[in-house]
Q: What sequence folds into this?
């Protein structure tokens, strides 16, 4: 296995309402379901195209492996692709979204009003203190460890990981050998968009081939 696709779930009502999701197990909304279907159709074509999927012995395309976060917005997105490729979706707890502690379910305005100092720290990209938010570096380690473990057992075909905006961003940062607590070189993925990484013999072991590929972007949570 040499290619990994990191695919963010489709839109939810929390995305629209500018609410922090974290571990809240909210489903896709109607737009999100449509985004998942459209993204799955495009991604399936990418994986089937020459160079998009790897060849097994004899020249046949090697099967794709799809692993999702346990949260249902990610699982529903993953299932849209799995139905097109006729493969099963499994889940891995290490792919869950960043835990936002006391802020989960709140709007940006509610957070700013209730915790102005912690909010200001968060907006600069650093870890807010005293509100039980999972540190960026911890998210990066957790997610990247899960991806490396899955990649080691995925076989010859591409691995598709379906997860969440913050988790994918911090995890990709870690996979590229950067410190997620202090390096901010990647913007968040739009809903139903993906990144593509390819394994490399050179440090850090992965190279970034695509970022935020997919259908038309939707508004991101600031």
A:
């Amino acid at each position: 296995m040499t290619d990994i696709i990191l695919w963010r779930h489709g839109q939810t009502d929390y995305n629209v309402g500018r609410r922090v999701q974290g571990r809240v197990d909210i489903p896709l909304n109607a737009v999100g379901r449509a985004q998942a279907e459209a993204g799955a159709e495009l991604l399936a074509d990418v994986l089937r195209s020459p160079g998009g999927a790897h060849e097994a012995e004899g020249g046949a395309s090697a099967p794709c492996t799809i692993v999702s976060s346990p949260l249902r917005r990610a699982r529903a997105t993953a299932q849209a692709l799995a139905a097109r490729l006729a493969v099963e979706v499994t889940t891995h707890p290490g792919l869950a979204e960043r835990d936002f502690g006391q802020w989960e379910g709140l709007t940006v305005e509610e957070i700013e009003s209730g915790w102005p100092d912690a909010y200001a720290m968060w907006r600069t990209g650093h870890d807010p203190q005293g509100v039980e938010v999972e540190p960026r570096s911890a998210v990066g380690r957790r997610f990247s460890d899960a991806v490396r473990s899955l990649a080691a057992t995925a076989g010859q075909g591409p691995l598709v990981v379906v997860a969440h905006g913050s988790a994918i961003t911090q995890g990709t940062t870690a996979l590229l050998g950067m410190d997620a607590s202090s390096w901010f070189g990647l913007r968040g993925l739009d809903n139903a968009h993906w990144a593509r990484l390819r394994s490399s013999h050179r440090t850090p072991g992965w190279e970034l081939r695509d970022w935020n590929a997919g259908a038309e972007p939707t508004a991101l949570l600031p």
Residues 147 and 161 are 8 Å apart (CA to CA).
